[in-house]
Specification:
42% strand, alpha+beta, six-stranded antiparallel sheet, 6 strands, 2 helices, Thiol Ester Dehydrase, Chain A
Length: 147
């Protein structure tokens, strides 16, 4: 199963400049998801991170993994995306191994480590051309939107 940007926008509440997933290329509900973010020099964070040597901030790489993990949670156990949000609760065992630069395609892969009730434990890897750039475990929860 693949998802284009229109379907991703119907699941995730994020919008430009904070949407960090461009396409989902594979989903195995309850198990794993793959997709990518095209990293462009037009990203607003490159103005200050770092002038003359632009690098995608590590926290935004982790955010990309968390967002695609939200799509996996939705595909596994669909929730009302108009009335619920997936909150990022924590990260563990996260390492940044290689810089991500403008022009890169950041490939994202997330696997389910555990799912109990509305809480998800995920493991994510972000690569560029097969080179591991970041990895870590993510904890998230689906909750009703505050009113």
């Amino acid at each position: 199963m693949q998802l284009d940007i229109r379907k991703i926008l119907s699941i995730l509440p994020h919008r430009y400049p904070f949407l960090m997933v461009d396409r989902v290329t594979e989903i195995v509900p309850g198990e794993s998801i793959r997709g990518y973010k095209n990293v462009s020099i037009n990203e607003p964070f490159f103005q200050g991170h770092f002038p003359g040597d632009p690098i995608m901030p590590g926290v935004l790489i982790v955010e990309s993994l968390a967002q695609i993990g939200g799509v996996l949670a939705y595909a596994t156990d669909p929730f009302d995306a108009s009335g619920s949000l997936m909150y990022f609760l924590g990260i563990d065992k996260t390492k940044f191994r290689h810089p991500v630069r403008p022009g890169d395609r950041l490939d994202l892969e997330v696997k389910v480590l555990g799912h109990h009730s509305n809480v998800w434990k995920l493991r994510g890897e972000a690569t560029v051309n097969g080179t591991l750039c970041a990895e870590g475990q993510l904890l998230a929860s689906v909750v009703e939107k505050p009113r």
